[in-house]
Write a structure and sequence with these properties.
Number of strands of chain A: 14
Structural class of chain A: alpha/beta
Number of helices of chain A: 9
Strand content of chain A: 25-35%
CATH topology of chain A: Rossmann fold
Oligomer: homodimer
Largest sheet of chain A: 7 strands, mixed
CATH superfamily of chain A: Vaccinia Virus protein VP39
Helix content of chain A: 25-40%
Chain lengths: 278, 278
């Protein structure tokens, strides 16, 4: 078992996939990048042994990470994406009208290269003129952002490895300072089944920093524990309401999913009291 | 890949679990029954290589299978459970007041024996005086039930193996005939990620037989594809509304989860048009 912290394993289940072909196996300065072909999921990107996305079902994660917060903001113009060098979150962000600038802050250039080679549909948005790619640590970016950010999306690849700094209090504090007055923020926080201590830690930390904090989920087949959580926060607006009509072309997310995906009030209350044992 | 039908595999991911101890390995007349101890999930029951339940998280599945339909009925007195020889659905059913009779129709007596030995908390309800155990095929039971059934719960262990008859049109037709005028019914139908053709087949078949058919889900960590579906139907009542107040002691299910768990209308409409590709 890989341990997430002292209290919980990253995954008590080992997931194995058929591999028809290994398309890329590369040690970058930060991680092992593996791109393989699977008969069911199509192309898969695997970082340090953990599946990050598959061509077949990546849209669930990327739509849910992006569109909930994008619709919670009344008029997002400036967006920052930390991680997400594959380009899939960018693709979703750029579906929204009115976007003027997107910072893509990716520490590992090899992810971008791999995506351009093996996931061209996802990577296409990396070349959009509104996108500015910054090859740097997200923690460094938030310490000195160039302008206020309307929507801040953390698409950290890996919650057990080197990306841990993107789940630290210091990072969240800087990030909050970088948000505009209407600013909203989201990061994934692992599984409600396997990583509840981590979800609880992040939720509690965010509550100390930002006035509005919430939690929503999606069921993702290739993420350990699969009942995947997204921790969202904002300086002003509740996240359960959409501030603009549903306006983008998606495969899963829509206005009804927006309403449904948030954790129920009772479950959330029990959860924050630490009363959930499973 | 194990195939569910010509169109889809049962699981394109192989799930592996640490085993601290093998407590039982038995070939019954119907299946291989395995009970193992896992460091995270506790005791696990595995039938023909497929995890059926774990002590740690079985309550998600059993509460969701049982309480949605139990609350959709105004006053359930007579309940039938097909499968479920482990006793966990019985435990949930018997939490409701007013229950007079529960038929437990289990084809494989060895499941009952294994549960009594290794899952005594779940098996305790098997000895309740209101429970009548019938060691027979569920398909046979529904052809000649002794009385009308208020709530009919199919807890089939295995949708790829010998239990296939519990997902056939003939079974559903007999089952519908066995329901009282207020009767409601539920069966699990696999994963929205991996088994959509099967979900679609069962939903379409049920719609030909019963006036009200619906679909709800829960995210289950140890079921392949995990975004697990429950197909429910009734002779009269909509299933999204509770006909009695939430009245049982549970760990996950409650009145808010009842409202939230049903598939959204738009997603359901797309799904029934066959328009979902993932």
């Amino acid at each position: 078992m890989i341990r997430l912290n002292d209290k919980e394993p990253f995954s008590p289940i080992e997931y194995a996939y058929e591999v028809d072909a290994v398309l890329l196996r590369k040690e970058s300065a930060f991680q092992e990048i593996l791109v393989v072909e699977n008969p069911y999921f199509g192309r898969m990107m695997v970082l340090d042994g953990i599946v990050q996305l598959t061509s077949r079902d990546e849209f669930f994660y990327h739509e849910m990470l992006t569109h909930v917060v994008m619709h919670a903001h009344p008029s997002p113009k400036t967006v920052a994406v930390v991680g997400g060098g594959d380009g899939a979150v960018l693709r979703e962000v750029l579906k929204h009208s009115g976007i003027e600038k997107v910072f893509l802050v990716e520490i590992d250039e090899e992810i971008i290269k791999a995506s351009k080679l093996f996931f061209p549909d996802m990577a296409a948005s990396l070349d959009d003129p509104r996108v500015e790619i910054k090859l740097m640590d997200g923690a460094e970016f938030v310490r000195a952002p160039e302008c206020y950010i309307d929507v801040f999306i953390v698409d950290a690849g890996d919650i057990v490895g080197f990306a841990k700094s993107l789940f630290a209090e210091e990072f969240f504090r800087s990030l909050a300072d970088s948000l505009g007055d209407d600013g909203v923020f989201v990061t994934h926080t692992g599984s409600m089944h396997f990583h509840r201590n981590m979800v609880l830690d992040v939720q509690s930390t965010l509550k100390e920093i930002l006035p509005v904090v919430d939690l929503y989920t999606a069921s993702l087949a290739t993420c350990p524990g699969n009942w995947w959580t997204f921790s969202a926060a904002s300086k002003k607006y509740g996240l359960r309401d959409m501030r603009r009509p549903f306006q983008v072309k998606t495969r899963y997310y829509d206005d009804e999913i927006h309403k449904q995906c948030f954790i129920t009030e009772k479950l959330y209350a029990k959860f924050m009291r630490g009363g959930l044992e499973w």
